[in-house]
Amino acid sequence: MAERTQRNNIMLAFITLVAVVLIVSIIGFITFRKGTEIIQGQAEANEYRVSSKVPGRILKIFVDEGDAVKAGDTLAILEAPDVMAKLSQAEALEQAAQALNEKAERGTRAEQLQAAYEMWQKAKAGLEIAEKSYQRVNRLYEEGVMSAQKRDETKAQYDAMVATERAAKAQYTMAKNGAQREDKLMTAAKVRQAEGAVAEVNSYVSETYLTASADGEVTEIFPKVGELVGTGAPIMNVAQLDDMWVTFNVREDYLKDFHVGGEISAFIPALEKDATFKVTYMKDLGTYAAWKATKTTGGFDLKTFEIKAKPLQPVENLRPGMSAIVKK
Predict the structure, then answer these.
(1) Residue 179 contacts by C-beta under 8 Å, 6 or more apart in sequence?
(2) What angle do CA 310, 314, 319 make, to 5 degrees?
(3) Closest CA to 121 of 171, 159, 174
(4) Cβ contacts of residue 289 below 8 Å, gap of 6+?
(5) CA 283/CA 281 separation, integer angstroms
(6) Distances (CA, A) of 206 to 197, 203, 223
(7) Phi-psi domain of 298 (left: phi exceeds 0; alpha: psi -120 through 50; beta: other)
(8) Is 233 helix (H, G, I), strand (E, B) or coil?
C-alpha cells in the first residue's frame, strides 16, 4: 500500500512538472513570437510663405486661417508711406527729364530763332556798308587823294564786319538746327533712367499688395492688422493641398518592400480607409538618425531611411499631419 502511494505521488509530481513546462513554453511562445510590425508615416504638403520686399504696417488682411485661396488672390495690404514718397520723387524726376528731352527734340524757340536771324541780317547790312566804304576809300587812295592810313583803317573795319557777319550767320544756323545729336541722346538717356527709377519704385508699391502665388489653403497668419513687419518677414503660410505625400522613417531591414517607383498600401486611421502610394524618394537619414545596434550579436548596425510616397489617386479629406500605417 505504501509502495502504491509512493508511485502515485511520483507520477503526480511528474505530471505536474510536465504541465508546468508546457504552460511556460506556451507562455514564452506567445510572449516572444514576432508580431506584426507597424511602420507609421505622416502626411505632408508643400507650403509657401507670403512675405513682402518692403517694410510696412499691416493695413488689411482679407483671409482667415483655413480659407482656400486661388493664385493671384489678394491676401493682405501693407501701408508703406516711405515707398509712396519715393514714387512721387521718381515721377517728378521723370517729368523733368521728359521736359528737357522735348526741348532738345523741338529745338530752339521761334523767338530765339527770329532774334538770331535779325542779328545776321544786321551784320550783313553792316558788311555791305563796310565793303562800299572800303572800295571808295581805296579808289581815292589810288588817285592820290586819300592817305594810306585812312585806307588801312577802312580795310580793318571791313575785315571786322566780315567776321561779325560770319559769326551771326553761325549763330543763326545753330539756332535753326537745334540741339546737337549728342545732347538729344543725353536727354533721351535721362528719360530712360527716370523711367527705370519709376518702374523700380512701382515694383516696391506692388509689393505692398500681397497675393497668393499658387492655389492652396491658409494655414497660419502671423501679424495682426496694424502691426509693423520688416523686409522679408513672413505674413502667412499657404499649404498646397493638391501636392501632398506621406513620409515614412523605415529601418533598413524592412526596406525590401520599398523602392523608388514601387507601390505600397497604407491605412489612414483618421479617414478609416486604405490608399495606394507610389514611392518617389528614398534617402538615409545619416548617423544622427535612429538606428539599431546589432554588432554585439554578430550582425550589423541598422540605419533608418526617409521614404516619401505620393498617392496614386487624390485622397479625399487627407490633411497634413494625418498618420498613414503600413503593416509588415
Answers:
(1) 103, 104, 105, 107, 187
(2) 80
(3) 171
(4) 249, 303, 304
(5) 7
(6) 14, 5, 20
(7) left
(8) coil
Q: Looking at the whole model, is its pTM more than 0.70?
A: no
The pLDDT tens digits for 79-90 are 887 776 676 777
Task: Determine the residue type at 245.
Answer: W
Q: Which CATH architecture has domain 35-45+242-327?
A: Beta Barrel (2.40)
* Dihedral (CA of 203, 204, 205, 210) sign: positive
Sheet of 209-211, strands arranged across: 209-211, 74-79, 56-61, 228-229
47-78+209-237: what fold? OB fold (Dihydrolipoamide Acetyltransferase, E2P) (2.40.50)
How far is the C-alpha of 305 from the C-alpha of 254, rounded, in Å? 10
Place of cell 526741348: 103
Report yes or no: 269 and 243 within 8 Å, Cβ to Cβ: no
**Cell numbers describing residue 97:** 527729364
Written as nine digits, the cell of 138 is: 581805296
Domain boundaries defined on the chain: 35-45+242-327, 47-78+209-237, 88-202
> Are the CB atoms for 325 and 40 separated by under 8 Å?
yes
Torsion of CA 316, 320, 322, 325, to 10 degrees: 90
Q: What is the pLDDT of residues 161-177, one digit of tens each?
A: 888 888 877 777 766 66
**Which is nearest to 178 in space by CA: 124, 120, 112, 117?**
112
Burial class (CB in 10 A: 0-12, 13-18, 19+), 72: exposed
pLDDT of residue 49: 92
User: Which three three-digit cell numbers place residue 178?
Assistant: 537745334
CA-based nearest residue to 168, from 127, 117, 207: 117
The C-alpha cell 519704385 sits at 201
